[in-house]
Amino acid sequence: MLDTIPAAARTVPPGRRLSRAAPIVVAALAAAALWIAPTFLDTFAVNVLTRSMIYAMLAVTVDLLWGFAGILTFGQAAFFGVGAYATAMILGTYGATPLGIAAGIATAVAAPALLGLAVGWLSFYHRSTPLYASVISLVVPIVVTQLIYSGGEWTGSSSGLVGFDVLPFEIEGYFRLAALALIAVTLAAWILVRSDAGRALVALRDNEARCAYLGLNPRRLQIRLTAALAAVAGLAGFLFANASGVVAPENAGFLFGTELVIWVALGGRGTLLGPVLGTIAIDYLAANLSGDLPFLWQLLLGTAFVAIIILLPGGLADLAGRLWRALPLGRTEPAAPALVAREAEAQAAPTDAPILKVRGLAKAYGSLTVLEGIDLEIRAGELVSLVGPNGAGKTTLMRCLSDGSEPFTGAIAIGGTAIAGLTPNRIVGLGVGRKFQVASVFESLSVADCLRLARAPHDGLNPVGQDPVLGLPQAALDVLRMTGLDRPLTQPARLLSHGQKQALELAMVVALEPRLILLDEPTAGLTKAERTTIGTVLKALTAGRRIAAVLVEHDLDFVREISSRIVVLHQGRLVLDGTVDAVVGSELVRTIYSGGAHG
User: Fold this and answer.
1) Same domain, yes or no, for 375 and 237?
2) Which of 238, 255, 272 is the last residue of a domain?
3) Is 396 domain-assigned?
4) Nearest partner of 483 among 435, 535, 552, 446, judged by Cα
5) 301-349 pLDDT per residue, tens
6) For residue 8, which phi and psi values (nearest 5 degrees)?
7) How do strand 383-387 and strand 565-570 relate by DSSP bridges?
8) Domain hosting residue 191, numbered range
9) CA angle 55, 52, 140 (to 5 degrees)
């Protein structure tokens, strides 16, 4: 629960309420304008724009995948084609009866969604790469197209399907139906990308590893997103099959999938409205010019694509955004959330049982042994520093403690639970937080958004908005206030200084409410004042036996000031484990450090 929150913090300002209502008002005005548009357009324009708006629905799905989640995909055409063919086959069998229409919609949505689940699983299995996912998306349209060619009478082979019953609308009705569907999809996407769940998509694009180390499951998010947007593409296929009365293999093909990517790039990926308007404009122009300039038009489109990618990587929408921000009305600052203390979740009373227990840990890369015979126990309230020269195996040990999918021998247990085979997000669920040597934050997100994502395992991800109140554990608030990060909450993380990024990552880790924190050189590159602040924060975190901390550090003076124990690694072996005075004053430590550079 949140502690007592001032009424001002709970009240949504009038300006915020208006900004929330603005997209709905704009959508309503757009719907009204498009509803009456067929009255003023000729038949050719109505037909072409109906198709263009359906294609724009697909562009929205490509933009969510590529522009926001960072997944370059050519496969949305395949899901669109599956939805279109499923519609044609169902309506061809049952006709445009209520049963046939209901079955057509259900099949057009469900079949691509199931295919999207399969494609998502293939694309995002553990340790897959973005390149691998893009290759899978290239293959899927080719496979679907070949299945269509092989379908015989079922799919019409290379001739496609034609002559099936369709919805009982005139061309103006299809125009209005496509317009309403496009507005609904775009509005839903707009709401999503401005919510906590939408920020998670950007976080996946920026730093997938940090998402996992905040307890999120990147693979699950990516697979669900792929399946959900495949269903939307299938719905667009349903509309297309009815509006055109014909479906053909090229509707599911690789070339169409590539065109969608080009349209999104030209319009401005990551903007939603840019791809929508860009797709409609390009498809309409193509329909008007392709008859007179069939080859020249393709050349012009290709030239424009190359020019915009080079000169305007953000697309035409990015240029419009720059012009808008140059105006006085465009220079608006987002409202900062109210910081409040959140009551920590109840935990079992600390006992003498170790939080971390390591027995016989060994790790090798081929014939090179990095760790061997590591035995270690750490209890609540301990701040254990892990020291040793370069190449001693310190970072490798931290990796093994936080990622059970690393191949190692021996046993590691967190709170009595073995972590072998567990992915980082599942280990976070056991109460482990990890801070990396190089600050690992979400560069595109604000400080507040980074902290909200750190609370996702506890608070969930809101898919329709953001709370104006940011509730954090008191320990995380202390980190923010001691480092001055409680002021630039709306500032993008990429604009923070090195020391501020280190402090932000530490605050994100503490916001997880971990029992054990793993810190890999948290003071690297910091000023003396910043190092002192971090040391004070770490001692406060472990005070009162609240949590345990393992700290990799080279500065023995810093280690002496804050540690309760020191563990020395040398050549992959644990050679000393004792009190601060005993270890720092030992002849062995002096020999080790005098024989190699501190790294």
Assistant:
1) no
2) 255
3) yes
4) 535
5) 778 777 877 777 777 777 777 666 666 655 556 777 888 877 766 565 5
6) -65, -30
7) parallel
8) 44-255
9) 25
- 157 HSE (CA, 13 A, CB side): 3
Q: What is the DSSP letter of 329?
A: G
Does 34 fall in a domain? no
Of 581 and 237, the one with more pLDDT: 237
DSSP string across 330-392? G--PPPPPEEEEEPPPP-PPP-SS-SEEEEEEEEEETTEEEEEEEEEEE-TT-EEEEE--TTS
* Tens-place pLDDT, residues 386-412: 988 888 888 899 999 999 888 899 999
- Letter for the amino acid at 139? V
Out of 236, 255, 274, pick the residue that ends a domain: 255
Q: Where are the alpha helices (DSSP H) in 13-157?
A: 14-36, 43-62, 76-94, 98-123, 130-149
Sequential DSSP letters for 416-484: TEE-TT--HHHHHTTTEEEE-SS----TTSBHHHHHHHHTHHHH---SS---SEEEEEHHHHHHHHHHT
Tokens (6 digits) for 172: 């103006």
The answer to whether residues 383 and 242 belong to one domain is no
Tokens of 263: 């349209």
CB proximity list for 85: less than 8 A, separation 6 or greater? 148, 155, 161, 237, 241, 247, 252
236 & 116 share domain: yes
Beta-bridge partners for 508: none
Among candidates 21, 83, 95, which has minimal Cα distance to 57? 83
Distance between CA atoms of residues 554 and 573, nearest Å? 17
- Mean of pLDDT values over 138-147: 94
207/2 Cα distance (integer angstroms): 29
Domain tally, the chain = 2
Rounded to 5 degrees, φ, ψ at 491 are -80, 135
Using a cut of 0.85, tell me whether the model's pTM lies above it. Answer: yes
CA distances from 337 to 10, 389, 400, 541, 580 (A): 10, 44, 37, 25, 42
All residues at 6 or more sequence positions from 139 whose CB lies less than 8 Å from its CB, including other chains:
none
In a 13 Å sphere around the CA of 529, the CA atoms on its Cβ side amount to: 5
Whether 244 is covered by a domain: the verdict is yes
Report the distance separating Cα 293 and Cα 121, nearest Å: 43
Q: Which residues contact 545 (CB under 8 A, 6 or more apart)?
A: 350, 380, 381
CATH of the domain at 573: 3.40.50.300
Same domain, 231 and 370: no
Answer positive or negative: Cα dihedral of 61, 64, 66, 70.
negative
Q: Is residue 309 part of a domain?
A: no
Instruction: Indicate the SS3 state at residue 585.
Output: coil
